[in-house]
Amino acid sequence: DEKTMEKIVALCKGRGFVYPGSEIYGGLSNTWDYGPLGVEFKNNVKRAWHQKFVQESPYNVGLDSAILMNPQVWVASGHVGGFSDPLMDCRDCKTRHRADKLIEDTGVNPAGWSFEEMSQYIKDHNICCPECGSNNFTDIRKFNLMFKTFQGVTEDAKNEIYLRPETAQGIFVNFQNIQRTTRKKLPFGVAQIGKSFRNEITPGNFVFRTREFEQMELEFFCKPGTDLEWFAYWKEYCKQFLLSLGMKEENLRLRDHEQKELSHYSNATTDFEFLFPFGWGELWGIADRTNFDLTQHQNHSGKSMEYFDQEANERYVPYVIEPSLGADRVALAFLCDAYDEEVVDAEKNDVRTVLRLHPVLAPFKAAVLPLSKKLGEKAQEVYQLLCKHFMVDYDDAGSIGKRYRRQDEIGTPFCLTYDFDSLEDNCVTIRHRDTMAQERVAIDELISWIEDKLAF
Ligand code: ATP
């Protein structure tokens, strides 16, 4: 519900995960800055993705391509002509709406509809402006979502370029470079994490939809005819990725696109949707895009995008499977999924806020807590030992109970208390975030003990 979202936003701001952007100047709407804990958390999400999709995959390699690209790229990709939202203004209160979103809010999916079909539906169902209740709308018109800027010193049309609206095209234009230099045979994939920009009409819901965001995209190239098999493979792989990081299965649903909804070039598309506090929202789009993108670039650049298949002794433009995930969006999903308020003692009205994040995603893997300030020096030694291996926190302020609660709230999975017995037995007490259970572990074994908990 709405309250939960407000609490998550407040926690993010209060504990240094995410701040409103440019705050001292009154902000810039829908921009957000990741603070000290947020940068650790989001980096952990990106690292986990890279680990599963590159490091542990026998097929995939990485790439980090430029945000600014030759404008012809966006002509070839279809973004100059077609990357637009159906916009409509309310004549009475002057607010701007996406016609497709207003229709979606009635439980109907308008994907693939023409502007006429959308207009007709809005009239027939008397859909009104959510702001003022009027049904006096302008016609629907196209609004291109790409951010324009100028390259070089003169601000003329010749120097107009775009901020990329997706990372995928950087992969397509490098297809031949990567194939040649890695000497990879099909099937293989290229994975990239980076910023993308879209001039969204209706950003909102915290970092769910922003105009500047990060994407984690894989373009997996395969032989035509094997594409549906690989589509199924990556769909399952993506699902297992989320589940292995602790995402609750009941908050996840896979929605296969119907024929009418599919782009003309797509053989299959599935949206992974997550149940956010504000409702179901798209998390991950997985599409079989056939040879559309490479063929477009072949036609526009005049450079061959063909692959020579030695085994079959034939040349063809590969098909591609594209799982495309928003880093900010999936980070938000993990946060919402992990957020919990647990009643510790109903009579005393004692409730603790816990982020039940998978240890590998948690900003701090552990916090070192000296029971008494007198033990500070020895506790610091434990901290110094661990910080070479993991992000760890050190906290000696306030009662031990209060310190536990502070760590619960930011998702630290293990609190390591150094007490007076530690001077004798060289052990610390590990207090588990989720169960609050405690156990005694030798300082010598801490590194491998924590390491074990980070597997996913
Ligand atoms: P939507 O329908 O939500 O606008 P889309 O279908 O346009 O999304 P894609 O173009 O498929 O999204 O982008 C792939 C992924 O990138 C999305 O599943 C989402 O996780 C992420 N993403 C897209 N747009 C945004 C945005 N404005 N802010 C944050 N993440 C985004």
Structure report:
The protein has 456 residues and is of the alpha+beta class. Among the domains are: 199 residues, BirA Bifunctional Protein, domain 2, CATH 3.30.930.10; 90 residues, 3-Layer(aba) Sandwich (Rossmann fold). Helices cover 32% and strands 27% of the residues. It has 15 helices and 23 strands. Strands 3-9-10-16-13-12-11 form a seven-stranded mixed beta sheet, with helices on both faces. Strands 20-19-21-22-23 form a five-stranded mixed beta sheet, sandwiched between helices. A hairpin with a 2-residue loop joins strand 12 and strand 13. Helix 2 crosses helix 11. The longest helix has 20 residues. The relative contact order is 0.11. Bound molecules: adenosine-5'-triphosphate (ATP). Adenosine-5'-triphosphate (ATP) binds next to strand 10, strand 13, strand 16 and helix 11. InterPro entries: aa-tRNA-synt_IIb, aa-tRNA-synth_II, aa-tRNA-synth_II/BPL/LPL, Anticodon-bd, Anticodon-bd_dom_sf, Gly-tRNA_synthase/POLG2, Gly_tRNA_ligase_bac, GlyRS-like_core. Catalyzes the attachment of glycine to tRNA(Gly). Homodimer. This is Glycine--tRNA ligase. Its EC number is 6.1.1.14.
